[in-house]
TrEMBL record:
Residues 1-19 form the signal peptide. Residues 52-368 form the Glycosyl hydrolase family 32 N-terminal domain. The lineage of its organism: Eukaryota, Viridiplantae, Streptophyta, Embryophyta, Tracheophyta. This is Glycosyl hydrolase family 32 N-terminal domain-containing protein. SUPFAM superfamilies: Arabinanase/levansucrase/invertase, Concanavalin A-like lectins/glucanases. Keywords: Glycosidase, Hydrolase, Signal. GO terms for molecular function: hydrolase activity, hydrolyzing O-glycosyl compounds. Belongs to the glycosyl hydrolase 32 family. The keyword Hydrolase applies.
Length: 587
């Protein structure tokens, strides 16, 4: 028998044996015991995060129906109440927040109960109808394992916490159309409304060797008719999971509501397949119900991704409180399934990111929501430090296992950069071949995160700068090869070009480190790489952070600011004791 972990949830605590709750431990009531219990928990569970959303136990995946409603942010998410693995019986767990960082758990919003979702309640989205009426469209897995689309409404719209949801009695509203297999029809988007009042929604699918967004229209949100053509399809893609379709302003970082359609916006179509979230930017021709992208997906490494590491099934929403568009995603584990059973949990949510269209109109830019800065503590900084070839310096004075770092590099003598024809190369492959140990000219330089003092364990997030004909190209890599002395982990190296001109702009990096997750934003958010790492030794207080330059040319750290991050107050939904009334009603 494997006594694998203790869990502390709200004001109750219990012991898990082989992932099953077997004993309540009410004896841990005084503060000292609770504090030692926390220390025990962190020592036993060094890979649990401090400020990322995760569940105390079991499996979680896609964010569902994120929205801002009557002063409260809502995060629903796919959750398996029965196991640390994915399985039948998936529910919509529910947490809510006033700032997108601290969350309190609520009861599950949707659980399998009816013929139209007898097996599972899968992913979907929320739409706020005129008159401030939120609704959910979600995929039910029916008793025959067919994927169908269902509607649910809040029981009490005047409750900002939207605790109870009622499934529409005439579900399902949409069933797999002719030519679409019953298991290739899922994940409705947030709906948008055309100028004539017609509601539209797309569903992810795959048919005739094309991944696609099937378009449905409705006058009343209940009766839906399939449009003749998909809103978009591409032969270069697989089954589209969790599509997302939304407008972005062409000249502002502000977000716009999903129904906005005018000359000051362009549209983004995102699809999740092949373990990544890919997107294209284009024009939505409302009258013809066509999306005309500037370029189709190519099926190559040049396709744009929200994140070039681990980041999947994302969903965005318009935040009317701060006029911005927010993006959330599932970040899965890269240890083994056996490890997940031992840990008793699997999956995290990314830090919510604000997204907007880059001024060049070609791609999106992402940045952690500003509310995250409220967790910053103990700032340390370094200005104007020369990083000679082969040098490493420790960023001390912060909690390196739980930190936020911003660093900017100046590159003198740029013209000495190595030549590369970037049209011929796959950035991820260069990062893999020329990992952090391979000396170049400009680069590798960057950060060594979750590292042991002697650097035997380290995750290197670094840049290389190349000359490409008349331009310069900045490559960003995340090298997990030495991230852990444990062997059985997925240590894939990730890489992407960052669309900045280093002649005009310093090469910058922001990295969020949280025990087993590292989210890195290169070029002020133009390329992002998220990874999961599980060091054996560089855990908790044994973790260190360094800046390094392993290139033959020196670079200058123009400035480095680093903060220890405080723990966020997070309880997940649906678990015993997770409804924190004090906290949830405090505003
Ligand atoms: N996860 C859900 C599906 C979706 C997939 C099931 C994407 O609805 O297609 O948990 O991760």
């Amino acid at each position: 028998m494997d006594i694998s972990l203790f869990l502390f949830v709200g004001f109750s605590c219990f012991l898990l044996i082989n992932g099953n709750k077997v004993e309540d431990c009410d004896y841990l009531t005084d503060k000292t015991s609770l504090q030692s219990f926390h220390v025990l928990l962190q020592a036993e569970q060094p890979y649990r995060t401090a400020y990322h959303f995760q569940s105390p136990q079991n499996w979680l995946n896609d964010p569902n129906g994120p929205m801002y409603y009557k002063g409260v942010y809502h995060l629903f998410y796919q959750y398996n109440p029965n196991s640390a693995w994915f399985g039948d019986g998936m529910v919509w767990a529910h947490s809510a927040s006033y700032d997108l960082i601290n969350w309190f758990g609520l009861d599950h919003a949707l659980v399998p109960s009816e013929p139209f979702d007898a097996i599972s309640c899968w992913s979907g989205s929320a739409t706020i109808l005129p008159g401030d009426k939120p609704v959910i469209l979600y995929t039910g897995i029916d008793a025959n394992y067919n994927q169908v689309q269902n509607l649910a409404n809040p029981k009490n719209e005047s409750d900002p916490l939207l605790v109870e949801w009622v499934k529409y009695s005439r579900n399902p509203l949409m069933t797999p159309p002719d030519g679409v297999k019953g298991d290739n029809f899922r994940d409705p988007t947030t709906a948008w409304q055309g100028p004539d009042g017609t509601w539209k929604v797309v569903i992810g699918s795959y048919s005739n060797s094309q991944g696609m967004a099937i378009l449905y229209q409705s006058q009343d949100f209940v009766h839906w008719t399939m449009h003749r053509d998909p809103l978009y399809s591409s032969s270069k893609t697989e089954m589209w999971e969790c599509p997302d379709f939304f407008p972005v302003s062409i000249n502002s970082t502000n977000g716009v509501d999903t129904s906005v359609e005018n000359p000051s916006v362009r549209h983004v179509m995102k699809a999740s397949f092949n373990s990544h979230d890919y997107y294209i930017v284009g024009t939505y021709v409302t009258e013809q119900e066509r999306f005309l992208p500037d370029a189709d997906f190519t099926g190559t490494s040049s396709d744009l991704r929200f994140d070039y590491g681990k980041f999947y099934a994302s969903k965005s929403f318009f935040d009317g409180k701060k006029n911005r568009r927010i993006l959330c995603a599932w970040v899965n584990e890269s240890d083994s399934m056996e490890d997940d059973l031992k840990k008793g949990w699997s999956g995290l949510q990314s830090i919510p990111r604000q997204i907007w269209l880059d001024l060049n109109g070609k791609q999106l830019v992402q940045w952690p929501v500003e509310e995250l800065n409220s967790l910053r503590d103990n700032e340390v900084y370094v200005y104007d430090k020369q990083l000679e070839s082969g040098s490493v310096f420790e960023v001390s004075g912060i909690t390196a296992s739980q930190a936020d770092i911003e660093i900017m590099f100046e590159l003198p003598k740029l013209e000495e950069a190595e030549f590369i024809d970037t049209s011929l190369v796959d950035p991820q492959l260069i990062c893999d071949k020329q990992d952090a140990s391979v000396t170049g000219k400009f680069g590798p330089f960057g950060l060594l995160a979750l590292a042991t003092k002697d650097l035997t364990e380290q995750t290197a997030i670094f840049f290389r700068v190349f000359r490409d004909h008349k331009d310069y190209k900045v490559l960003m890599c995340s090298d997990q090869k030495r991230s852990s002395l444990r062997n059985e982990l997925d240590k894939t190296t990730y890489g992407a070009f960052v669309d900045i001109d280093p002649q005009r702009e310093m090469v910058s990096l922001r990295t969020l480190i949280d025990h087993s997750i590292i989210e890195s934003f290169g070029g002020k958010g133009r390329s992002v790489i998220t990874t999961r790492v599980y060091p054996k030794l560089a855990i908790n207080d044994e973790a260190h952070l360094f800046a390094f330059n392993n290139g033959s040319l020196s670079v200058r750290v123009s400035r480095l600011n680093a903060w220890s991050m405080n723990k966020a107050q997070i309880t997940a939904g649906g678990e015993p004791g997770t409804i924190s009334e004090d906290f949830s009603r405090k505003k």
